[in-house]
Amino acid sequence: MSFRLLGVRNVGRGRILAYQRLHLRTGEGTTVVRDVIRHRGGVGVLPVWGEEEVTLISQFRVAVGEDVLEIPAGKIEEGEISATEAASRELLEETGLRAGRLVDLGEILPSPGYTDERIRLFAARDLVRGERSPDGAEERQARVITVKIGHAVRMVESGEIRDAKTVVALLRWLAMTGSAA
User: Per residue in 127-164, pLDDT tens?
Assistant: First the structure.
């Protein structure tokens, strides 16, 4: 079934997101209205120490009203020329880590039912510790933790880790490396 765009109404714009109302004609000939959030895209980075440990952060996420355990992540800033540039910046800001290399874990669509956001995932390897430079109140209060990969997988299974990009990054890393959790 194909859809044809009939019109777009810009409903609102925030600091990061734009909200649009789309009018479409379906392949059946009916007209439907869909609300869409536009997002410039983001990155997520799974810092991996050797073959045994990963670094995660726990920070308050206002949208869900609770602390969320996740990989370092953020939006691609205007002017950044690549996702790897954004990934390196977010990793340093949130954890104080620098990666000797970034391994591409692919792209995810976190919620394609209402947003065009795309997140490029990476594994950070050959890590070097440095100074955190948190950008924002949530990052300043975030806790940085390092856990065994197997423990992180059990945290996914138990529901302690519920963040989608974190779950996908862990699973893709394990699939890519053939590591047993």
Answer: 999 888 877 888 889 999 999 999 999 999 999 999 99
pLDDT for position 146: 97
What is the SS3 string spanning the chain? CCCEEEEEEEEEECCCEEEEEEEEECCCCCEEEEEEEEECCEEEEEEEECCCEEEEEEEEECCCCEEEEECCEEECCCCCCCHHHHHHHHHHHHHCEEEEEEEEEEEECCCCCCECCCEEEEEEEEEEECCCCCCCHHHHCCEEEEEEHHHHHHHHHHCCCCCHHHHHHHHHHHHHHCCCC
Look up tokens 């869900």; give the residue. Answer: 64
What pLDDT does residue 85 have?
94
| Residue 160 bears catalytic tag | no
Catalytic residue selected from 138, 139, 157, 160: 138
